[in-house]
Amino acid sequence: MKRILGVLALLMAAAGTASAQSALRVNASLGSFAPMLPVVSVADGQNPDVELESATATTLELGFAARPWATLYGGLTYAQPRLALSGAMESSAVNGASTRTTLLIPTAGVMLSRPLGGTTLRPSLRLGLGAKSYRFDLAEQDDRVTDVTGDLGLGLSAGEGPVSMTAEARWLPSTFDARSLPIRATGGTEQDQNDWIFQLGFRFRP
Questions:
Q1: Which of 18, 83, 93, 154 has the smallest number of Cβ neighbours within 10 A?
Q2: Which CATH architecture fits 2-194?
């Protein structure tokens, strides 16, 4: 946790420098990656599913205000959730254990927002696409596994100065190919993923 907070502090410092030198918006956030479905539903009636556990997530995004109510954005989210393994895994070395997963989520899209009445509060709607890139700490899995994901969210920012606070819930729907892991699964190979990120952060602007 201390390492994650240290990374976020460095990102915020870099973000502040960048925003002072350009017209770009820079967002730095810390939150939680929360998967709602197993990464692989084994569905054989004997073994438990293969699941990613919740984990701390950090996000850094750059935005360009194309309109007063629309900002184009691109960013990267980083998390290291643990992978809870299953007896269906085709590897005796990792049966019944858990292992670290490195997850990178680059996304891009548009953020729509307007002030709420005469206040400095701005509700926002995120509409974007990206990818989930997994690297599993498994001897049998050397390559990254990458899947297309949506990036949809609702948020709220407060403040109109050079620094404002943000809160957001992001929905990242995607699929995962069960054949990407050394596992015996009787369910479908392309399985739905329903992941969320809940984050708090700061937005820097000139």
A1: 93
A2: Beta Barrel (2.40)
